Amino acid sequence: MKKRILTAVLLLSTLMTTQAQVKGNKTIETRSFDIQDVETIKLNFYAHVTIIKDTTSFLTITTDTNIFDRIEKEVVDKVLHLDQKEWISPSKKAVIHIGAPELKRVETGTHDKTHIILKGGSFELVAPIGEVRITGEADAIQIRAELSKVDASQLKLKAADVDLWGWGYVKVNPTDQLSGTISKSGRLICDSNPTINDIRLKDDGRFLRSAEVSTLKDKSARFIKFRIKNNSANRNHFIVIGPKPDGSKFSYGFPMMPFSVRKENWTVGTKVYKKNKVGLKKLLLTITEDDENQTVKLFD
C-alpha cells in the first residue's frame, strides 16, 4: 500500500512539474537567428510581430533570456514556424521582427498584434483571429479572416479578394478589383471605388464605408464585473467572445489552472468557450445580467 501511495505521489509530482508554467526571469535581451528562403510564416507565439518583405532575411526576438530556448523557430520547406515548446509566461510582451524577401503568405494563430509591410507582388493572409495591419504596396492580396481585425486600408493595392466568415472586419482599398464573400456578420470596409466590384454578401455580412461604421453601435452591450471559476480538476484553455458598445466584438484566449478564480469585466451576452487540443471550441456559458458581482462556475 505504501508503495502505491508513493508511486501515486511521484506521478502527481511529475505531472505538476510537467504542467508548471515557465515564467520570464526579467532579464531582457534581443537575439538574432538565421533564416533563409522563407515564403510562409505561421505565427502561434504570443508577441508583437513586425514582418517586412525586405531585401534581406532576418529574425530578431526580444524577450527574457530563459524563454529563448522554449520558442520554436524552425524553417521547414520554406515555412517559418513560431510557437512555444512549453507553457511560458514572459515578464513582458515579446517583440519579434522578421525579414523575408520571398514572403507570400502569413497565418496568424494568436490574438496578438501583427504588422506586415509589403513591397510589391502578391500576398495571402490567413487570420482567423488577432489584429493585423498591412502597409506598403502590392499588386494583389488575398485575405481569409474570421474573428480577426485586418486593416489594410493604407496598403497601396490594385486587387483584393476577401473571404470573411465571422464577425471580424477587413479594411481594404483596391483601385482595380474587389472580390470575395462576406458572411456571418462580418464587415468589409472599403472607401475606394474599384473598377470591378464582385462582393457577395450572405448571413448578415456587410459592405460599408468608413463613415457608416459608427451606425452599428450596440447600446445593450453593458460591461459588468464578476469572477469566473474553473471548477475542474484540469488545466483548461478558454476563449471568450463578447459584444462591444461600438458594434464590434472582443475576443481572446486564456488558460486557467484547476479550481482557480479570476476577476473579469465583460459585457452582458459574452460567450465563454472551452478550446480543445485540436482547436475546436465548445460553448460553456453566456454571461447575463444576473452574473454581476457573482462567481460564475465554468462547468456544470
Low-confidence stretches are 5-18
What's the helical proportion of residues?
A: under 10%
What's the architecture of the largest domain, going by CATH? 3 Solenoid
* Beta-strand proportion: over 45%
Which word captures the global form? Answer: flat
Rounded to an integer, what's the Rg over CA atoms?
Answer: 22 Å
Overall average pLDDT: 91
Q: Could you describe the largest sheet, including whether it forms a barrel?
A: 18 strands, mixed
The CATH topology assignment of the largest domain is Pectate Lyase C-like
Write the layout of secondary structure elements.
Blueprint: H1 2-19, E1 22-23, E2 28-33, E3 40-43, E4 48-52, E5 58-64, E6 71-76, E7 79-84, E8 88-89, E9 95-99, E10 105-108, E11 113-119, E12 122-127, E13 131-145, E14 149-152, E15 156-164, E16 169-172, E17 177-182, E18 187-189, E19 196-201, E20 206-208, E21 223-229, E22 236-243, E23 249-256, E24 261-267, E25 271-275, E26 281-286, E27 295-297
Which keywords apply here?
single chain, 300 residues, mainly beta, Pectate Lyase C-like, 4-stranded antiparallel beta sheet, 1 helix
Task: Write up this protein.
The structure is a single chain. By secondary structure, the chain is mostly beta strands. It folds into two domains: 25-214, Pectate Lyase C-like; 223-297, Immunoglobulin-like, CATH 2.60.40. 6% of the residues lie in helices and 51% in strands. It has one helix and 27 strands. The chain has one helix spanning 2-19; strands at 22-23, 28-33, 40-43, 48-52, 58-64, 71-76, 79-84, 88-89, 95-99, 105-108, 113-119, 122-127, 131-145, 149-152, 156-164, 169-172, 177-182, 187-189, 196-201, 206-208, 223-229, 236-243, 249-256, 261-267, 271-275, 281-286, 295-297. The strands form four sheets. It has an 18-stranded mixed sheet that branches. It has a four-stranded antiparallel sheet with strand order 23-22-25-26, with no helix packed on it. Strands 24-21-27 form a three-stranded mixed sheet, with no helix packed on it.
